């Protein structure tokens, strides 16, 4: 009923590193600092570590489920809960993946509008980005893996640029090391987790990995690398900005780039925003791919048509969201859903799967 | 495209009609000769009244000396009465007695002398006496190299295979020949090394060659376009080269070469994008130098594609990015120019394209003059007239120069072409537009394959081993493996001798 | 394209904005021509609109390199202007902010004895001084002082002298208001206390007409804050090393002279620094970021600190290391 993909459509296990990492580094990194600092001050870097550690735990849970099911979430749901209930949950997953792509797309377009092109209306960018994503997703999973891999390669030099602001660094900013209460830290960790969301797409692309169980360690490496990048960025912003200053800066990482001066190029944020597109694109592509692939698995509809429908929906909803408040509400909703999914639903699913398997064996 | 297809179909229909006519009434020799005689260069006569032999040939493609020296004397002998006797008598190895009229016709048309005996109607002696005009092997012109071999392919397929085979004197070098083109009947040879090359690649090529339905195959570039994986791609799918040394080298890497009769360019594949930027001369230089040159070339590509569009993007939207010190000269050169940057850039780019096109279509000597007139006279005049800024002139000229560093001509054209979409998107959305255009091209490249193998390898899929000879070239002793790209059954090229790592003391 | 912006005080509600830009006429080797526009209004947007109404080209502020506040407007507070500057995404963070004694308009709208454009000249002068005589401060640094709850901002002061522009000390802010100015000489002491730097230069009188200068000065300062029995105490430890050169009537090869020089410099630095810090305490401003240092203690209490700051004990210790130098003996 749920056939596995052909061998020549699969990718090597180590690409899981790039896929997971690409999903986790998205639009959030341009401004996550402010949010976590508001809750936990300059001790917020601890929150990055704790929430990262919890994500590693969840990846472990995910791999237990997937290795046992040896298929994607749609098939696993159907196997555990039957066609109807399982299908319903799978459908919710799909909507979540779609909403994820939507949030990323809309947030990025907002950055574009605020920082670069206040005079261009958003639907143009939305349209172009959807068109580009469509052209990637029609290439299939291998092409999407390619863009997440290349996106990371192109994005990495931006990290080097972060060394420039360090000449204005005041390392004393980080002191005292622990200034936040555990409750504050917990709140910051929760907020930080939102940035790590996106690894759930693993549940859709798992069957496309050659020798899936082997990819587990790469998934961990991917998360570790994301943690490293968030930590490094947070470190640079913390020493560069005064705490109060940071609290009033929405896109701290972008503001950071304003000081970069590469002799022939000043005001690096314009380059930064453009190059960052290559980190945004995989997010949207993987989201759309997962959603359309799931539709194809659930309903008798071709993936191409499902993709077209999703692209159209993406365009309509993105254009309908006009102000920052609405985008904020959307971001919050999706991240809340994501949060509960990963922290409650996934462990439940693991237990449930375990029980059902036992029962079936008998 | 559609238009082209329909044309092709119509042609095929016509073609098959004539074929049907042929087979309808079994061709007789007389009839064949009758049709041939319509052409003035066809010669057909009875040697003498006493001789039973009739001789037929196209005087334009036959070496008349062979006829005079080795055939006529034996006919004159009068000792042989039958074709068989004659065949025995004539001291030429390549003779056959053929009964099939179609075969006789084909032979006749490829430069054989046909001798028949009146009376024995359906039988003829066919003696090969081809005389083909070909130029001598000359210097490579497109892929010139300062050091290294200076031979280039010519228009004769036999001479070309000769050039390759003398470099690879092994029985494993296989040549498979197909005839392509309903009118031109072009000989197309597929060369590969048995055991080193993946059979699947060979089959792909042979299958695609056999599927070609086209009337004329005049040059290898026809084949290149027809058998490419994606017909709508501006990027070439196979590398064309005129260097037999390069062909020998890629053959031993496990790739396949297609040589087309009448074309001085061989096609090699499967290939990758970076391969288009490696000149064969890289292998003649020490690896450090070669690696640096390759990186310079790759940089040149990016510079050539992006520089003018970045200029337009920055000047139109992101003037903040220009440092204070650089801003003043820029403003100074831009002020007073009546056009926006995009128009200025397009005008200059088109001028350069015009110059190149004019230079390429004219004989070499005049071409040089054109270059000077265009480059110096028009350039300076445009700046002095205040129509373009000299900064942009410098950028455009450098970009054009950079595009000529690409060793493969076809790729150079592609690079010059894709500059224009970048320019337009840069004008529309600044740096972001450049990114959009770049990511679109990237999606195209990611989807692209060459003979079914990924085009962007070894970058994606990442093949660390293949990186040794892609963007840079590591020394030969490290090139122990064939590239994964070609899926060679024998991956090891040679067993590296265990070097005694020089642990010797300084003065030992 | 705007390169400098100046703000002048008009009355409690309105202020006057001046923008200066340079325009290079077509043709080779032509000199830049300055264009200056002025308008008054309640908000920066209003001023921009008014200026745009008289300018021939679009007024864009992305490339602005310097913003000048007249002393009067600075004393009344510059919050609106700062806010609009930092909100605009096209404004960079390397922007220079300065306070001028004259009207900002006068500074922008005048000729200086240089072939460069006025804006470029102004920026060059201030930038040069930021390297050598006054602490490095740009828009980013200003903002981080301005926002900090435990420090106060400062800006360079410029003054026009004939056909030249001169940097003339520092203006100390409390929140967004200018409360004090310090002289160029003291600004140098401020720089020593504020940041680590090299390639400085310091002159001192040894009494009796003897004069010596320390070159190649490298300085480093450590601030430490202690808390004992709920009482805060701050200590500056200044380490300066340099080469003695150009001694008038001095035998620089003598070890004793060198020691004397060291002592004199130490005294000079401590005396002047103590005086300056006292004054800051009296005004209850903290441009030297002593409060930030205090915050870095785990037992920091902001209310206590603010109560104690003007009376707390601040010690300054200087340690000078001089070597004889010059290529002759």
Automatic annotation (TrEMBL), chain A:
Keywords per UniProt: Germination, Membrane, Transmembrane, Transmembrane helix, Transport
UniProt topology in membrane: Multi-pass membrane protein
Principal cellular location given in the protein's record: membrane
GO CC, alphabetical: membrane
Transmembrane segments: 12-32, 44-63, 84-108, 120-137, 149-166, 218-241, 270-292, 304-322, 337-356
Swiss-Prot/TrEMBL GO biological process terms: spore germination
Cellular localization per UniProt: Membrane
Family membership: Belongs to the amino acid-polyamine-organocation (APC) superfamily. Spore germination protein (SGP) (TC 2.A.3.9) family.
Name the UniProt record assigns to this protein: Spore gernimation protein GerB
TrEMBL record, chain B:
GO terms (BP aspect): spore germination
Gene Ontology cellular-component terms listed: membrane
Protein name: Spore gernimation protein GerA
Pfam families the UniProt entry points to: GerA
Sequence intervals crossing the membrane: 295-317, 367-385, 391-409, 421-442
Species whose genome carries this gene: Sporosarcina globispora
Keyword Zinc: no
Keywords: Coiled coil, Membrane, Transmembrane, Transmembrane helix
């Amino acid at each position: 009923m749920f056939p596995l993909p052909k061998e020549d459509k699969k990718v090597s296990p180590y690409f899981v590193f790039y896929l997971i990492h690409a999903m986790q580094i998205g639009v959030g990194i341009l401004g996550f600092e402010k949010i976590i600092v508001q809750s936990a001050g300059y001790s917020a870097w601890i929150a990055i570590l704790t929430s990262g550690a919890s994500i590693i735990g969840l990846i472990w849970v995910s791999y237990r489920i997937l290795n046992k099911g040896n298929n994607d979430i749609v098939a696993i749901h159907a196997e555990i809960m039957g066609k109807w209930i399982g299908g319903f949950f799978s459908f919710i997953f799909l909507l979540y993946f779609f909403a994820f792509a939507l949030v990323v797309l809309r947030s990025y377009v907002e950055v574009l509008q605020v920082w670069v092109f206040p005079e261009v209306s958003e639907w143009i960018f939305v349209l172009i980005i959807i068109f580009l994503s469509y052209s990637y997703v029609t290439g299939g999973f291998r092409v999407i893996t390619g863009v997440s891999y290349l996106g990371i390669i192109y994005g990495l030099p931006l990290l080097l640029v972060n060394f420039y602001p360090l000449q204005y660094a005041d390392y004393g900013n980080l002191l005292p090391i622990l200034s936040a209460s555990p409750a504050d830290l917990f709140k910051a960790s929760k907020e930080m987790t939102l940035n790590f969301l996106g690894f759930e797409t693993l549940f859709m692309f798992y069957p496309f990995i050659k020798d899936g169980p082997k990819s587990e360690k790469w998934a961990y490496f991917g998360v570790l690398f994301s943690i490293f990048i968030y930590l490094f960025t947070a470190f640079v912003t913390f020493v560069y900005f005064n705490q109060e200053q940071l609290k009033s800066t929405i896109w701290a990482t972008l503001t950071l780039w304003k000081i970069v001066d590469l002799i022939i190029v000043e005001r690096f944020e314009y380059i930064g925003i453009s190059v960052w597109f290559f980190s945004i694109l995989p997010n949207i592509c993987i989201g759309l791919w997962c959603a359309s692939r799931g539709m194809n698995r659930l309903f008798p509809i071709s993936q191409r048509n499902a993709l077209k429908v999703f692209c159209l929906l993406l365009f309509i909803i993105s254009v309908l969201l006009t102000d920052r408040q609405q985008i904020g509400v959307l971001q919050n909703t999706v991240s809340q859903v994501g949060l509960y999914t990963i922290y409650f639903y996934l462990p439940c699913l693991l237990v449930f799967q375990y029980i059902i398997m036992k029962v079936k064996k008998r | 495209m559609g238009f082209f297809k329909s044309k092709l179909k119509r042609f095929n229909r016509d073609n098959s009609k004539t074929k049907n006519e042929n087979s309808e009434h079994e061709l007789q020799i007389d009839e064949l000769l009758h049709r041939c005689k319509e052409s003035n260069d066809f010669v057909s006569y009875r040697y003498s009244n006493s001789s039973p032999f009739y001789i037929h040939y196209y005087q334009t493609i036959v070496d008349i000396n062979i006829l005079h020296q080795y055939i006529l004397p034996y006919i004159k002998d009068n000792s042989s009465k039958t074709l068989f006797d004659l065949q025995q008598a004539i001291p030429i190895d390549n003779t056959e007695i053929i009964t099939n009229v179609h075969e006789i016709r084909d032979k006749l048309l490829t430069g054989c002398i046909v001798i028949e005996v009146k009376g024995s109607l359906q039988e003829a002696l066919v003696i090969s006496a081809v005389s083909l005009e070909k130029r001598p092997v000359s210097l490579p012109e497109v892929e010139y190299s300062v050091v290294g071999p200076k031979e280039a392919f010519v228009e004769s397929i036999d001479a070309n295979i000769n050039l390759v085979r003398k470099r690879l004197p092994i029985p494993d070098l296989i040549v498979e020949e197909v005839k392509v083109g309903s009118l031109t009947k072009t000989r197309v040879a597929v060369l590969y090394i048995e055991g080193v090359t993946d059979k699947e690649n060979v089959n792909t090529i042979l299958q695609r060659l056999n599927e070609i339905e086209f009337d004329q195959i005049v040059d290898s570039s026809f084949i290149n376009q027809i058998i490419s994986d994606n017909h709508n791609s501006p990027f070439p799918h196979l590398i064309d080269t005129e260097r037999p040394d390069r062909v020998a080298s890629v053959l031993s890497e496990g790739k396949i070469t297609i040589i087309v009769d009448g074309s001085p360019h061989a096609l090699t594949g499967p290939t990758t994008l970076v391969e288009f930027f490696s000149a064969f001369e890289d292998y003649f230089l020490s690896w450090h130098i070669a690696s640096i040159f390759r990186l310079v070339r790759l940089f040149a590509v990016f510079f050539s594609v992006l520089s003018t569009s970045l200029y337009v993007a920055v000047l139109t939207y992101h003037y903040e990015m220009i440092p204070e010190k650089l801003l003043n000269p820029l403003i100074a050169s831009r002020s007073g120019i009546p056009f926006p940057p995009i128009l200025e850039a397009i005008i200059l780019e088109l001028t350069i394209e015009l110059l190149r096109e004019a230079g390429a279509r004219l004989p070499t000597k005049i071409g040089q003059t054109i270059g000077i007139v265009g480059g110096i006279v028009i350039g300076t005049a445009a700046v002095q007239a205040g129509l373009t800024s000299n900064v942009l002139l410098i950028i455009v000229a450098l970009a054009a120069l950079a595009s000529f560093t690409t060793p493969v001509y076809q790729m150079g054209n592609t690079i010059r072409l894709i500059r224009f979409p970048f320019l337009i998107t840069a004008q529309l959305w600044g740096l972001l537009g450049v990114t959009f255009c770049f990511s679109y091209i990237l999606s195209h490249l990611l989807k692209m394959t060459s003979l079914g193998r990924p085009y962007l390898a070894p970058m994606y899929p990442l093949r660390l081993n293949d990186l040794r000879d892609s963007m840079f070239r590591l020394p030969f002793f490290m090139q122990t493996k064939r590239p994964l790209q070609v899926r060679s059954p024998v991956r090891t090229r040679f067993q590296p001798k265990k070097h005694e790592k020089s642990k010797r003391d300084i003065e030992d | 394209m705007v390169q400098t912006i100046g703000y002048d005080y008009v009355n409690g509600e309105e202020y006057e904005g001046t923008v200066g830009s340079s325009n290079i006429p077509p043709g080779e080797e032509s000199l830049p021509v300055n264009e200056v526009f002025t308008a008054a209004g309640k908000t920066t947007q209003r001023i921009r609109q008014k200026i745009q109404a008289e300018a021939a080209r679009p007024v864009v502020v992305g490339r602005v390199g310097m913003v000048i506040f007249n002393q009067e407007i600075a004393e009344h507070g510059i919050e609106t202007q700062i806010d609009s500057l930092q909100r605009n995404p096209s404004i960079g963070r390397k922007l220079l902010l300065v306070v001028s004694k004259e009207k900002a308009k006068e500074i922008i709208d005048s000729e200086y004895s240089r072939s460069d454009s006025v804006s470029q000249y102004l920026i060059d002068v201030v930038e040069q001084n930021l390297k050598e005589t006054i602490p490095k401060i740009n828009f980013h640094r200003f903002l981080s002082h301005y926002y900090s709850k435990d420090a106060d901002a400062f800006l360079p002061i410029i003054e026009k002298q004939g056909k030249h522009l001169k940097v003339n000390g520092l203006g100390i802010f409390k929140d967004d208001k200018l409360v004090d100015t310090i002289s160029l000489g003291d600004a140098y002491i401020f720089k020593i206390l504020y940041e680590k730097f090299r390639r400085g230069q310091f002159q001192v009188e040894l009494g009796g007409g003897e004069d010596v200068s320390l070159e190649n000065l490298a300085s480093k300062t450590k601030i430490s804050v202690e808390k004992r029995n709920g009482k805060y105490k701050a200590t500056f430890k200044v380490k300066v090393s340099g080469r003695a050169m150009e001694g008038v009537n001095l035998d620089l090869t003598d070890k004793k002279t060198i020691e004397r020089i060291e002592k004199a410099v130490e005294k000079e630095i401590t005396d002047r620094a103590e005086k300056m810090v006292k004054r800051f305490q009296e005004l209850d401003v903290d441009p030297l970021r002593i409060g930030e240092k205090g915050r870095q203690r785990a037992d920091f209490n902001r209310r206590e600190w603010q109560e104690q700051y003007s009376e707390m004990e601040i010690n300054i210790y200087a340690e000078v290391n001089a070597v004889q130098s010059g290529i002759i003996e």
